[in-house]
Amino acid sequence: MSSPALRLARAHWAPLVALAVLTLLSALFAVAVPARTAAGYDRAGAAAVRGTDLRVVGTAAGPEAARPISSGAALETVTVDWQTLLPPSLRDVAGEPEGSVGTARMDVLGNAPRPRKLSLSHDPGALKRIRLVAGGIPYAEPGRLSGDVPIIVSKTYATAMGYKVGTRLALTEGSRPRAVQVRITGLYEPLNTADRYWQWGPRWSMLRPVPTLVSNGKEGVLTDVGTALMGAGGSVMLTRDPARQLTFTWRFPIRADNVDAEHAAAITADLDPFRAAVQGRPGLFPCKVETALDTRLKGYTARLHTARTVLGLALGGLAAVAAGVLLLAAGLIGERLRPVLATMRARGASLRQLAAPVFGLTAAAVVPSAGLGYAAGRLLDAGPPQPGSAYAIAALALTVVTVATALVWRERDAGLGVQKRDDIGSARPSRRRLVLDGLLVALAVIGVVLLRRRGHAAGTDPLVAAVPALLGAAVGVLVLRVYPYLMRAAGPVTRRRRGAVAFLGLARAARQNIVGALPLAVLLLAAAIAGFTATVDTGLRDGQVRASYAAVGGDARLAAGPVDEAALRRIRAVPGVTGVLPARIVETVSTATDPAPMTLVGVDLHAYRKLAPSVPDIPDSGVLMSPLAAETMGHGEVTLSRPGLTPIRVKPTRTIERFPGQETGSAFVVVPYKLIAAEKGFPSQVFVTGHDLDARKLSAAAGGGRRVELRRDVLRGMASDDMVTVVHDTFRNDAVLGGAFGLLAVLLVLVVGARARARTIAHLRTLGLSRRQSRALALVEIAPVLLCAVGAGWVLGLLLPEITGPVVDLRPYTGGYAVTAHVPDLPALLGLAGALLLAAAAAVAVDRVFDTDPGTVLRTGDS
Q1: Residue 198 burial (CB count, 10 A)
Q2: Distance (Å) of CA 424 to CA 76, 123, 480, 516
Q3: Which of 132, 671, 725, 782 sits at 20 to 30 Å (Cα–Cα) from 89?
Q4: Which H or E run includes 686?
C-alpha cells in the first residue's frame, strides 16, 4: 500500500475499523445462522423417526409356515436375505435386524380376578438379553409335534399372575375349540431393563403384565396382557394345528441419528422398491412391509418445506439488512474521503490514481475480516456448513469494495462542475435516479406476483428470499420520496414554537444527504423483518391453540365405558372442572344398502357449543357426517344399525371435515345424543372444560383405567415439536440480529458524523444553546428518520404474511388449520419500543461523548 494510502488509513481509521468489524460480524452470522438452522432441520428429522422401525411381516400356518422356517438357523437366513434387499438409503438408517415368530394374544383359561391374555414368541434377540433365575430353557426336541409347548416367563409376570416353574396353562384363541397346552419351564430377568431392545411396545409384555383395554364388541375390558418366550422347536410345535396362524416378523429398528434433512426424501422414495422386492421374494409365504417411516417422513418433509420457505423469507431479509449496513459503512468512508479525493483530483490525479487508495483501504478492511468471520463461524460448529454461506460472503465483500471504489466516479469533474445540494430536503432526483427507483418498485411488484402465483410450490427458490428485500427497498424509495414533504410540512409548526430546538433539529434532519439517510432503508428493512417474524410467530401459536381445541374437543376428553349420572357427578366434582358433557360412541354401524363401517357419535351439539366455544368448525345443530361417510350415506334419509343397537333413521344436514376424538379422513356420523341415549353397553367420551385439570383424578372419577387426554398436553406437544422449535428460534434470532444491525447502522452514522456535528453544536453554543438543549437537539435530529423508517417497516412486516399469501402456509404445524395474520403479541411490541429507546439513547450518548467546549473547537476568526 502506498504512503498516501497509509496516511489516509491513519486519518480515517475509525470508519475503516467499523467497516472491518461489521464485515466480520456479517460473515460470522452468514455461516453460523444457516448452519444452526440446518442443524435444527436435521434434529427435527431424527426426532420425526425416533422410535420407528421397519418390519417385514408375514403370516402362515401349518406346513406353509414349517417348511421355509423349520429352525432358528432358517429364521436367521431369511433375516439376512431381507437385509441384503434394503436399498442404500434404508441400509444407512436401518439397525441390525431382529427376527421373531409369535402367536396372537390368546385367552388364558381359568379363574382370575380379571381376564388374562398371553402371547407366545420365539425371539432370539430377547433370549440373548435375559438370564434364567429359576428352571431351565424352553427346549423342544426337533421334530416333536405333540405335548406341552415349553415356555419361560419373566419373574415379575409370574409373581403378579401367581405362576411358578411347572405351571401348566391352557390357551384358546377366539372360537377355536382346541386349546394350546403350555408349561412354564423357567423364569427370567432382563440383563438390562434400560436396553433399547425392550422399548419396542410389543416387548413390554415380555417383562411384566400390561393392563390393556381389550374390546369385547361394545366396550373395553381391562385385561392383563403378557408374552412368554419359547424356543424354535416350540414355534414348530405350534404348526401342528393347520388353522393356527403364526406371525413372522423381521424388525429393523431405525437409527434416528442417521436421518437428516438431505436424505429424508430419498428414504421415502426407496420404501416402495423395497416393498416390491419383499412381495416378490420366491420360496416364502407372502410378506409385506409395515412401517410408519414413510408417513412420518412425509409429514416431516411437509414441515421442512414450510420451514425452509418461511425462514427463507426471514433469512433473506436479515441478509439484506446486513448488506445494507455494510454498504452504509462503505458509503460513509466515501463521504469521509471525498474532500481528500477532490483535492487530489484538482491537483491532476487521474481516476485510476484516486481509485487505487480507496480500493486498497476498503479491501484491507473487508477481505481479512470476511475471512476471519468465515473461520470463526466454522469454529463455532453451529451445524453442517452450508455452501451458500461462502458464496454470500464473497459476493458481499466484492460488492462493498466495488461500491466504495465506485464513489471515486463522483470526482471525475475535479470539483469544477456546478456544485449541487444533495441533501434530502432539496435534492432533485435525476431522470436516471427516477428510472432506477421505478425499476426497483416494478421488480418488487413482479416478485410478489410471481411468488403468489407459484404459491407453496415456490419452496426455497431465491425469489422467495429476495421478496422481503425488494419490498423493503421499494418502500424505502417511497419513504425517501415522501420524507422531504413531511419535513416541509413540519417546518411551519416548529417555527411557531418558542424554542429553537425543534426547528433546528428538523432543519438538520432535512439537510442530511442521501448517504446519511441510508440508515432509513436499513432500519426500515430491519423493522419489516421484526414485524414479519413477530406476526407469523403469533399466528403460529394461535393456530396451534385452535388445533389443540379441535383435537381434544375441550380442556380434556375422557375415553370411558358406559357413563351414568353418578360418574358424571364424580367428574364434575373433580377440582378445576367447570363443565362436563358426555358423548356416546358406537363403532361399526352401517346402512342397509352399504356395509362400509362408520362410527356413530351421539352428542348434544347445542350444549357442546356452549361448553367449548373455542373448538372450531363445529355447528350447533343438525346431523353431521364426514366426507367419507357422505360417500356411503348420500344426502337423503338413511337407517343406521349394527348388532346390539336399535336402528335409527337420520337425514344428514351438513358435512364436516373433523370432529374431536375422530380420525381425520375417517367415516363418522354425528347425531343428537337423545337418539342413542337409551342404548346400553357402548363406550362414551366425556368432554370436560376447566383449569388446572389432573388426568389421574379425572380417570379415577370415571371409574379408573380410562384414557384421559388433556388439551394442554396436546398443545405442549405441538409447541415442542423440533421443527416448530427451529422456526420459533430462527424467528427470534432474526428479529434480534436485524434489530442489532439496525442499531449498529444508527450508531455508525452518529459516530462517523459526530465531529462535524460537534463543530456545528459549538457554533450554536456560542449563540446560547445549552447542554440540555444539545441533548434534546440530538433526539430531534434522529427522530424523523427513526419514526419514518421503523413505522413504515413495521407496517410492511405486518402486511408481509398477507402479501406473500399462500407461501406462508403453516398448516403442517397446526393440524391442518390455516393460520391467519395476527397482531404481534406484547413482547414483540415491547421489543420494538425498546429498540427505539436504545436508538434515542445512542444519540444522546454520542452527543455526550463528543461534547466539547466551544473554545477548543472554534479557531480564531470563526464566527
Answers
A1: 15
A2: 82, 81, 8, 9
A3: 725
A4: strand 684-690
Residues 747 and 330: their CA atoms lie apart, in Å, by: 15
CA–CA distances in Å: residue 432 to residues 424, 435, 438, 534: 17, 5, 10, 37
The x, y and z cell numbers of residue 420, run together, are 449541487
In angstroms, the CA 83 to CA 278 distance is 11
Give Cα 855 distance to the centre of its chain: 61
High-pLDDT (> 90) share of the chain, % = 29
Distance separating alpha carbons of residues 17 and 26, to the nearest angstrom: 14
Decide if pLDDT at 850 tops 90: no
pLDDT digits (tens, 9 = 90+) for 81-104: 999 999 999 999 999 999 999 999
Instruction: Please answer whether residues 98 and 76 qualify as being in contact, where contact means their C-beta atoms are separated by less than 8 angstroms.
Output: no
Q: What is d(CA 295, CA 264) in angstroms, rounded to the nearest whole number?
A: 11
Q: Nearest to residue 616, comparing CAs of 673, 663, 649, 660? A: 660
Domains in the chain: boundaries:
3-43+301-545+721-857, 104-243, 562-705
What is the rounded distance in angstroms from the CA atom of residue 841 to the CA atom of residue 828?
Answer: 20
CA distance 274 to 84: 11
DSSP for residue 813 = G
Helices (H), 381-461: 387-406, 431-454
| Cβ 586 vs Cβ 600: under 8 Å | yes
Beta strands 220-229 and 116-122: pairing type?
Answer: parallel
C-alpha cell at 433: 435516479
Position 393: which residue type? Answer: I
DSSP H helices in 612-721: 627-633, 695-701, 711-719
Those residues with Cβ within 8 angstroms of residue 106's Cβ, 6 or more apart along the chain or in another chain:
117, 118, 119, 120, 171, 172, 173, 180
Bridge partners (DSSP) of residue 654 are 624
If one counts every other C-beta atom within 10 angstroms of the C-beta of residue 588, the result is 14
User: Has residue 515 got a pLDDT over 60?
Assistant: no
CA 601 – CA 862 distance, rounded (Å) = 91
DSSP state of 675: G
E strand intervals along 273-412: 287-291
Q: What are phi and psi of 72, to 5 degrees?
A: -65, -35
Q: Is the pTM of this model over 0.85?
A: no
Q: What SS3 class is residue 661?
A: coil
Q: Cα 182 from chain centroid?
A: 51
Q: And the C-alpha cell for 644?
A: 346390539
pLDDT digits 0-9 by tens, 254-268: 999 999 888 898 999
Residue count of the chain: 863
Backbone angles phi, psi at 201, to 5 degrees: -45, -50
The tally of CA atoms less than 13 A away on the side-chain side of residue 14 is 12
Where is mean pLDDT largest: 230-239, 463-472, 487-496?
Answer: 230-239
- Find the distance separating the first CA and the last CA of the chain, reported in whole Å: 40
Task: Find the farthest-apart pair of alpha carbons in the chain and give their distance in angstroms, rounded.
Answer: 123
Q: How many beta carbons lie within 10 A of that of residue 462, not counting itself?
A: 10
Beta strands in 737-781 (DSSP E): none
d(CA 447, CA 450): 5
Residues 6+ apart with CB under 8 A from 569: none
Q: Which residues contact 239 (CB under 8 A, 6 or more apart)?
A: 61, 62, 63, 65, 66, 145, 246
CA dist., res. 73 & res. 87, Å (int): 24
CA–CA distances in Å: residue 20 to residues 15, 27, 90, 366, 681: 9, 11, 47, 5, 77
pLDDT tens digits, one per residue of 425-458: 555 666 777 788 888 888 888 888 888 877 666 6
CB 520 within 8 A of CB 789: yes
List beta partners, residue 248.
Answer: 58, 101
For residue 456, with 0-12 CB atoms within 10 Å meaning exposed, 13-18 middle and 19 or more buried, which class applies? middle
For 568-600, the three-class secondary structure string (H helix, E strand, C coil) is HHHHHCCCCEEEEEEEEEEEEEEECCCCCCEEE
